[in-house]
Write a structure and sequence with these properties.
Layout lengths: L7 E9 L7 H19 L3 E8 L4 H10 L3 H18 L6 E4 L3 H16 L3 E11 L4 E3 L17 E10 L5 H10 L3 E2 L4 H9 L6 E2 L1 E3 L15 E3 L1 H6 L1 H4 L11 H4 L4 E5 L3 H14 L7 E5 L2 E3 L2 E2 L10 H8 L1 H11 L6 E2 L2 H31 L13 H20 L3 H22 L1 H4 L6 H22 L7 H8 L35 H17 L19 H5 L3 E12 L2 E10 L4 E6 L7 H4 L3 E5 L5 E3 L2 E3 L2 E2 L1 E4 L2 E4 L10 E2 L1
Parallel strand pairs: 1-2, 1-11, 2-3, 7-12, 11-12, 13-15
Antiparallel strand pairs: 4-5, 4-6, 6-8, 9-10, 13-14, 16-17, 16-19, 16-25, 17-18, 19-22, 20-21, 23-24
Helix pairs in contact: 2-3, 5-6, 11-12, 12-13, 12-15, 13-15, 13-17, 13-19, 14-15, 14-17, 15-17, 17-18
The structure holds ligand ME8.
The site of ligand ME8 has 21 residues, from β1, α1, α7 and β11.
């Protein structure tokens, strides 16, 4: 047990893109940071818990244009959904930063200028391979088989004036930070970063975009044709939110450096390399820890806004309560690995741990105090067999949990707490209160057994209140504990509740769920959720200067009906799906950039139109023997499906 009165503790989530509504993935990081922040507050720390939204950039600009609103109007609306969700999930953040806040904008401009004045940012020319549809520059080493690594399409040589951030002066220090300190958690990821990015030579980072292409960003004050690259803008939030380079807040000296930045693996590189380099260039202290967790996946793919496979936390929360959702995602995710989301695992976990484990322990104990003692225990109690072991396990728990919180291993912290819950349920079986109750002379022993159970519940519920902050106060009410009883210090003590405690029977804290019925309903709900998001229609533009072709030219294209017999994502390219087709004469494989629009299981069994005589090409390691036809409108793509014709039929 470590008490830390008044020591500072600063923890941050990533600032999320409000390019779509938040999902369970965002909930994980935010609930995890909230739980750590709550635990630290219990330990006596003076905590700053920061979250927020990363509101600039091309993606947001495009989304807003699709909706016909300004980028600011667009983000304002989604930020409200984020805030509503955090309220609903009982997230107790201390500060919420929006990168469109004036103080942040001016502070980023000062940071950019400072890096320029120090000679770490210079003006140069960006030359590289450019993917026009993705609006992204790539280096030769980033290309996959010479094509855009994101969409698999051709890239063109392009150049533009840009500002660059010199990374190489910091390579040695960053390598040491990653390999010789415990900055990165889990450290096993350090090698991957060092081998992929540092050993080949840290390349200078392009840190501006010309404002011709992209206006929704923070202008470079001394060269207004440029806006600051979103990641320089976004990473700076961790210090601007404390008041660095601005007068809105005055907490920088107190809270910086951060104790923990928590992020998922997709943005580890930015936090493990670029952010330390920026701080080194500014001569500022480095954060103490970067905790990197894996992804919540669904059907083997990352749950993400662009893949459209998101689980709506409001829907789940409505059904099971925010605390059950918080518990499930934190219990499932082991730091460093992915966690596959499944309705079945979630419901079983809620049933086993929360309804049968904790819920049952609380309701049985309270019910027995009511039944055998009218709700108030007597003063005279007698200890006996099994007490010592229960008391020892319950009072040792806080030290174990402290250790896991220090390592940001929340799943392990929860597992340890639930071991004590199981121990207490076993204690009921061992002491058999219903047998004791049969004989009046056993009443002192019976009272002691029930008191020990109430005390164990007090300890576990105090520790759990950091993770499930809505439900634990209800437990306290039921076991007759007041706020002075449920302190962190008291979790190491036994005998805190008065011997003559009075309990209050109340609602069932975690009702048991009917697994089969619920899974059916959830599947229906998740299906209908997806349908509820129609893509906005964009008026097609009439093409100009299109060359006419003769019928002979058209006849060169062999179009045939083919049936999709199998379909799977391509590991190396998130936009591609690998389709196996029966073209009427045999089997062939086609890679198609439609992963964003279709799930593999939606396509199997469908018939499509195949360009059958296209020269084969290798796309991200898949030999594509043809192309399938699809229509495009704005951000929407629809494959052309064919009914009533067998595979192999010619299309003319
Ligand atoms: O990357 N599983 O924003 P973002 C687990 N704006 N966590 C997930 C997840 C999943 N499937 N999906 C998202 C950005 N997350 C930048 C960050 S920070 C200076 C700028 C969580 O909206 C996880 O924390 O794409 C991940 O790092 C973050 O959301 C990415 O959120």
């Amino acid at each position: 047990m470590q008490k830390h009165n008044g020591e500072k503790y600063y923890i941050t989530t990533p600032i999320y893109y409000p390019s779509g509504n938040p999902h369970i993935g965002h909930c994980y990081t935010t609930a995890a940071c909230d739980s750590i922040a709550r635990y630290r507050r219990m330990q006596g720390y003076d905590v700053m818990f920061l979250t927020g939204t990363d509101e600039h950039g091309l993606k947001i600009e495009q989304k807003a244009a699709e909706k016909g609103v300004t980028p600011k109007q667009y983000v304002d609306e989604i930020v409200e959904v984020f805030k509503k969700l955090w309220k609903y999930m009982n997230i107790n953040y201390d500060r919420y930063i929006r990168t469109t806040d004036d103080y942040h904008v001016t502070a980023v401009q000062k940071i950019f200028k400072d890096l320029y004045d120090r000679g770490y940012i210079y003006k140069g020319e960006y030359k590289g391979k450019y993917c026009t549809p993705c609006e992204s520059f790539w280096t030769d080493s980033q290309l996959k088989d010479g094509k855009c690594p994101d969409c698999g399409r051709d890239v063109v040589e392009a150049k533009e004036e840009a500002y660059f951030f010199k990374m190489s002066p910091f390579a040695d220090r960053i390598e040491k930070l990653l390999t010789e300190t415990d900055y990165l958690q889990p450290k096993t990821r350090a090698l991957e970063l060092v081998n992929n990015f540092i050993k080949p030579g840290l390349e200078d980072l392009c840190v501006s975009r010309t404002s011709f292409k992209w206006k929704w960003g923070i202008p470079v004050t001394f060269d207004t044709n440029h806006v600051v690259y979103v990641w320089i803008d976004a990473l700076s939030n961790y210090i601007t939110a404390l008041g660095y380079d601005n007068d809105t807040y005055n907490d920088y000296d107190k809270f910086w450096p951060a104790d923990v930045h928590m992020v998922a693996k997709d943005i580890m590189r930015f936090h493990a390399i670029i952010w330390p380099a920026m701080l080194m260039a500014l001569d500022l202290p480095l954060p103490k820890h970067l905790a990197v967790h894996g992804w919540i996946t669904f059907n083997g793919q990352k749950m993400s806004k662009s893949l459209g496979n998101i689980i709506d936390p409001f829907v789940l929360g409505e059904r099971y309560g925010a605390d059950a959702i918080r518990y499930h995602i934190m219990r499932e995710m082991a730091l460093g690995s992915d966690s596959s989301f499944s309705n079945e695992i979630m419901i079983n976990r809620i049933n086993t741990d929360l309804a049968n484990g904790l819920g049952n322990l609380v309701s049985r104990t309270v019910a027995m105090v009511e039944k055998y003692f009218g709700g108030t225990l007597p003063e005279i109690q007698q200890s006996g067999d099994f007490d010592e072991d229960l008391i020892a396990q319950a009072t040792a728990l806080v030290d174990t949990v402290d250790g896991f919180i220090d390592k940001t291993q929340l799943n392990n912290a929860l597992a340890e707490i639930f071991k004590v819950v199981s121990r207490a349920n076993k204690y009921i079986d061992e002491t058999t209160p219903w047998v004791l109750a049969k004989d009046e002379t056993n009443k002192p022993r019976l009272a002691c057994v029930l008191y020990n159970l109430l005390e164990t519940i007090r300890i576990v519920s105090t520790l759990l209140s950091a993770f499930m902050p809505t439900t634990m106060p209800i437990v306290w009410e039921q076991i007759g504990a007041n706020s002075k009883d449920v302190t962190y210090e008291n979790t190491a003590k036994f005998g805190v509740l008065p011997k003559t405690v009075t309990v209050h029977k109340g609602e069932i804290i975690f009702p048991r769920i009917d697994v089969d019925k619920e899974i059916d309903e959830l599947n229906k709900l998740i299906g209908s959720q997806k349908k509820e998001e129609p893509k906005p229609e964009v008026k097609p533009e009439k093409p100009e200067n299109v060359a006419l072709i003769g019928i002979d030219d058209f006849a060169k294209v062999e179009l045939r009906v083919a049936e999709i017999t199998a379909c799977e994502p391509v590991k190396k390219a998130k936009k591609l799906l690998k389709l196996t087709l029966n073209d009427g004469f045999g089997e062939r494989t086609v890679a198609s950039g439609i992963a964003k629009y279709y799930k593999p299981e939606e396509l199997v069994g469908k018939k499509i139109i195949l360009v059958a005589n296209l020269k084969p090409a290798v796309l991200c390691g898949v030999e594509s023997q043809g192309m399938i036809l699809a229509g495009e409108n704005g951000d929407d793509v629809k494959v052309i499906f064919v009914d009533g014709l067998p595979a192999g039929s010619e299309i003319r």
